[in-house]
Design a protein that fits this description.
2 copies of one chain form a homodimer. With 417 residues, chain A is an alpha/beta fold. Chain A has helices spanning 16-31, 52-57, 68-92, 124-131, 157-168, 202-210, 218-227, 248-253, 285-295, 319-328, 355-365, 389-399, 411-415, and strands at residues 3-8, 35-40, 97-100, 107-109, 118-121, 135-139, 142-144, 150-152, 173-178, 199-201, 231-235, 243-246, 264-277, 301-306, 309-315, 334-345, 372-375, 379-385. In chain A, strands 3-6-2-1-9-11-12-10 form an 8-stranded mixed β-sheet, sandwiched between helices. The two termini of chain A are 34 Å apart.
Chain lengths: 417, 417
């Protein structure tokens, strides 16, 4: 008997038909004899009356003056409503179930309303209900302070609720149900032959999420990673097994590590490149530039400090402010709007020679200029023009053979470990 | 400085325009230097997505199997949402305010989900916020068990929340805002010259509410009555003072008791009269009849036991079952469907001779047969045909001069007390 945490997002709970699929996944695990904790998001997408955005619309344009504590109270209704709807369906099918708010589920947080951190989880009450053979439905995205105040964990918070509960309850697996068949090698809206991955490591999925892939919240992955609880990202609307996320050792020991150097691609659009040239200027140019950005809360990326000056990127929306700040410091930066950052991600590229060569070759062959680049031991980033994005993603996807279904081969045999 | 509890119903909170009126009443009291606890119902009427009925619609027709505990969790969202919306408006106008759930407001209840009883109220937290010059917005209709479970108080529960808080906080007054100008002498949809009453006693309003007038929940009145906290029923949409509800002594001492024997009329439609005749039947006829009704949960009214048989009324919807039960006992009742019960209510009629005479005279003059009658020391009930209802109400309203604005005269002078 396994203990499984399932998390269903808003799209999976948006209408009767989707909720039938949700029921199917729950009942399958129950009939296999497993214990189930089901974490739910608010129902539906923007436009549905009980979606998080719709609740916020009750405030927006009406003064927008709701204090953070009350904002969290308001938002907590979204998950409560979808939890009750799911509970009703399960009961009607004859499966006893109970709804617990984040607080009732034992999730204690600090009091940073809107982005509270989980301090600890007391799983006692959940375990009691599981022992009584009940499905425990927990409202995602929310917790409670020690003083009994309702808090929310910020966007992506239901993923965090799910993995944190998985860790606290020592679950066998945390299944994150979404509307795609797992984690894909690239965004299928941009790369026609993108395909689902069978398995990735925690580090890889973190890199993907941090670099623009909308798969699972990075904080949720970090929590699972620390405790080594395996996560599966899978589709509500199919019976596909989805993508297993665990640590590299576990993947190797299960023989499902591939002979791959590159796992997938991610990208971020709407990036502006700023270049500040150092014409006999002060030696503390970079210090003054980044201090100005930081003091105004502008996130910077792709920082490249050279004797001749500084290159870095900001979001297109922050660009006008950044340029004004630089002007106040007496600098006239070169500004290139409409750039895109492409991330080539692979836990297996560490120390592998030639990855950068493949990237340069593929982009050059496609006539795409590389505006800037950076690398870590698991990711290489290139900055290109947004107009080149579709072609660049397709070219890199093909160059690394990501469209090919890999053989299940143990990398340990391959590299003789 | 007074401490005032204000309660706003769903219609008062249903749209931006109504909420402007709500704000007006709140700000008026704040500017007069008063402390305010504002109790809110769920927004809007049936059809609005956040109304109580709409939340229930998420369950209805989808198995209807939600356990009572989870049903209360779901319903509690209605008031939370309207409380947050009101808090936002107040903050935007520069008035600090805080939202407290029933539990956070210190309302402890038993665990009879759906119709929980208030066990005690700890007003400490509310007082703390009031001292900090904050408007305290409390979600009506709900409380919390000692174990931290959310409960609801049943229909009309926001009125109960308001008067119970008024008692616990020793409020100077509880203002129940609704969509009519206080308590009227009769239902204005039936009696064209019905007019608002300046003051009534707790007993009178209880009688009205129990006899079909939709003014304020009887349980709420009982709570206020026990502690002697005055209540005002008034309109959100006007500046009328509404109707003061307090005890007869207080009304007398303030000189606002009228020389009236009859205060108002109330009525209930869709009543069926059943007559079971005792043809040499068993002596325990009435026992067998009422035992059968009770065992099937049928409410009976207008019971009239005579040597010749039994007359009583049930609702039209219970009538078919009642007739079947009587047939099973071997009785063939006379059945008169489509009756109406008219209540003539007045705290001053106790011992006053001639009230029944006025009723009989008015109805006889209008050619309306009285099918049955009953009386207590503050109310006389007559059963008539529903087709005669409009004419009967108008005739009685005129006969007792309820359309005339009374002089403010102290009954003590009148009766020489």
């Amino acid at each position: 008997m396994d203990l499984i945490v399932q998390k269903f997002g808003g799209t999976s709970l948006s209408d009767d038909q989707s909720r039938r699929h949700v029921l199917r996944h729950i009942i399958r695990e129950l009939e296999a004899g497993n214990q189930l904790v089901v974490v739910v998001s608010a129902m539906g997408r923007s436009g549905d009356p009980y979606a998080t955005d719709s609740l916020l619309d009750l405030i927006r344009g009406r003064g927008d003056a709701l204090p953070p504590r009350e904002r969290d109270l308001l938002l907590s209704c979204g998950e409560l409503i979808s939890a009750a709807v799911l509970c009703n369906l399960l009961q009607a099918e004859g499966f006893p179930s109970v709804v617990l708010t984040g607080g009732q589920a034992g999730i204690r947080t600090d009091d940073h309303y809107g982005s509270a951190r989980i301090l600890e989880i007391n799983g006692e009450r959940i375990r009691k209900h599981l022992s009584a053979r009940e499905v425990v439905i927990v409202t995602g995205f929310q917790g409670m302070t020690r003083d009994g105040e309702v808090t929310t964990l910020g966007r992506g918070g239901s993923d965090t609720s799910a993995t944190a509960l998985g860790v606290a309850l020592k679950a066998n697996i945390v299944d994150i149900y979404t509307d795609v068949d797992g984690i894909l090698t690239a965004d299928p809206r941009w790369v026609s032959d993108a395909r689902p991955l069978t398995a990735v490591s925690y580090e890889e999925i973190c890199n993907m999420a941090q670099n623009g892939a909308k798969v699972i919240h990075p904080r949720a992955v970090e929590i699972a990673m620390k405790a080594g609880v395996p996560v599966r990202v899978r589709s509500t609307f199919s019976d596909s097994e989805g993508t297993l996320v665990t640590n590299a050792q576990a993947l190797r020991s299960q023989g499902i590590w591939y002979d791959r150097t590159v796992t997938g691609l991610a990208h971020v659009k709407n990036v502006t490149q700023l270049s500040v040239v150092n014409h006999d200027g002060p030696a503390d140019l970079q210090l003054r530039v980044f201090r100005a950005m930081a003091s105004h809360g502008i996130s910077v990326d792709f920082i490249n400090v050279m004797p001749t000056g500084v290159h870095y990127t900001v979001s297109d929306s922050d660009a006008p402010l950044a340029v004004r700040l630089l002007a106040e410091l007496g600098f006239e930066p070169q500004v290139r709007r409409g750039c895109a950052k492409v991330s080539v991600i692979g836990g297996g590229m560490n120390g592998e020679p030639g990855v950068m060569a493949v990237i340069v070759e593929a982009l050059t062959a496609a006539g795409i200029p590389i505006l800037q680049s950076a690398d870590s031991n698991t990711t290489i980033w290139v900055l290109i023009s947004e107009t080149d994005l579709a072609e660049a993603l397709q070219a890199l996807h093909s160059a690394f053979g990501l469209h090919l279904t890999p053989n299940r081969r143990n990398i340990e045999e391959e590299v003789g470990l």
